[in-house]
Specification:
Layout lengths: L2 H14 L27 E7 L5 H11 L2 E7 L2 H10 L6 E2 L6 H6 L33 E14 L11 H4 L7 E4 L2 H11 L9 H15 L4 E5 L1 H10 L4 E5 H8 L5 E4 L5 E10 L6 H11 L2 H11 L14 H4 L8 H6 L2 E3 L7 H14 L2
Parallel strand pairs: 1-2, 1-3, 5-6, 5-7, 9-10
Antiparallel strand pairs: 3-9, 4-7, 4-8, 4-9
Helix pairs in contact: 7-14
The chain binds spermidine.
Length: 368
């Protein structure tokens, strides 16, 4: 099943709400998690994760309930995550790559099988997220959270005249903006604005995206590349009018400041699923599996998404999700837009010339 079909299968249930499955245990962030068959073998769990991507209370509860310490180091891009893991010597147990990085991590021998039979709460994963194309049989991954990418603004300072990528990709140079420090997101957005697939492997289409982006980064209003939390903070501080952002990172800030707004541009946009994976050199695989099991417990899973404002692929968590989030189209893109490919999953590129062209475009943009 490819990535778009995954969410298509899931969304009707997401939109309509979902029943708890028979016999399912509802763990809580304050009560003990259901026991996993494998016993933890160590006292410290090390996790390498996207920044601002977990409820700190969930981590504290896990430490207390298991008598262990959890160390979380964070990153702002898949590329940074892969480079650090490939550099070796980091001794993490778990990492948190996006769907389109899984095969590259496997080729680099960075992953070991999860053995989902040892993770009882794996049964809670929504059917639409099982057996994904990037990891047949969920041998190496469980889905963690997902989000589309949008354009954000601070309504107290700026009113966008349209909901279009043209606000930054068009000829006008009157707004101050940042782009995500993420090659597939930036090149994907340019491709979408031009009417192409975010996964385009067509050399002429990629050259058109490159030519457009050359003009965009030459604008006076372009204030650089940034991660999601950095972009949110710059919007809050009023340093920029617009920012390309993972929707969850913006909605997380909107919970505190109602002026923060985000929309999915009318030309379409990207979406991706972030996963949890067990690293090949994990010092504590049993403890790592227990952590994944805890994260997949219904109330814990919902607590994480209610805190982070990211999409939740756990069917059993749905009754506990904040309805305000669940009903927000930026958080939960309309099914028709997923079906039509307007909101399109980023997928791994076929090997060869296209990935090299993406790399070359990105190096050129970053060196300006
Ligand atoms: N702060 C959490 C960021 C999660 C971003 N998801 C990755 C999307 C990559 N296209």
């Amino acid at each position: 099943m490819n990535a778009r079909r995954l969410l298509l299968v899931l969304l009707p249930a997401l939109l309509l709400g979902c029943q708890r499955q028979p016999g399912q245990t509802a763990a809580s962030t304050s009560g003990p998690p259901p026991a996993a068959p494998a016993q933890p073998g160590g006292r410290v769990l090390r996790i390498f994760m996207w920044s601002d991507y977990i409820d700190p209370q969930v981590v504290k509860d896990f430490e207390k309930q298991n008598g262990v310490r959890v160390i979380i180091d964070t990153y702002e891009s898949n590329e940074a995550m892969l480079a650090k893991l490939q550099g070796g010597g980091s001794s993490y147990d778990l990492a948190n790559p996006s769907n389109y990085f899984i095969q590259a991590m496997l080729r680099a021998r960075l992953l070991q099988p999860l053995q989902t039979g040892l993770i009882p709460n794996f049964k809670n994963v929504a059917a639409g997220f099982l057996n994904p194309g990037y990891d047949p049989g969920n041998r190496y991954t469980v889905p963690y959270q997902y989000a589309a990418t949008g354009l954000a603004y601070n309504a107290a300072r700026y009113t966008p005249p349209s909901q279009s990528w043209s606000l930054i990709f068009g000829p006008s140079d009157t707004v101050k903006f940042v782009l995500l420090d993420d090659p597939r997101e930036v090149i994907g957005a340019a491709l979408k604005y031009l009417g192409y697939s975010v996964n385009s492997a067509s050399v002429p289409q990629l050259r058109a995206a490159r030519d457009l982006l050359r003009k965009v980064v030459a604008k006076r209003g372009f204030l650089g590349f940034d991660g999601g939390p950095g972009t949110r903070n710059r919007l809050l501080a009023g340093d920029i009018d617009l920012g390309q952002i993972y929707v969850g990172d913006l909605l997380q800030g909107a919970a505190e400041n109602k002026a923060l707004k985000v929309f999915l541009p009318k030309e379409g946009t990207t979406i991706s699923t972030d996963t949890l994976v067990l690293l090949a050199g994990a010092p504590n695989p049993a403890l790592a599996r227990r952590f994944i099991d805890t994260v997949l417990a219904p109330k814990v899973s919902a607590a994480i998404s209610n805190y982070t404002s990211y999409g939740n692929p756990n069917a059993a968590a749905r009754p506990y999700l904040d309805p305000l989030l669940r009903d927000n189209p930026a958080f939960n893109p309309p099914q028709a837009d997923l079906k039509s490919g307007k909101v399109e999953f980023i997928e791994e590129l076929p090997p060869g010339k296209p990935p090299r062209l993406y790399d070359r475009i990105w190096s050129e943009l970053k060196s300006r």
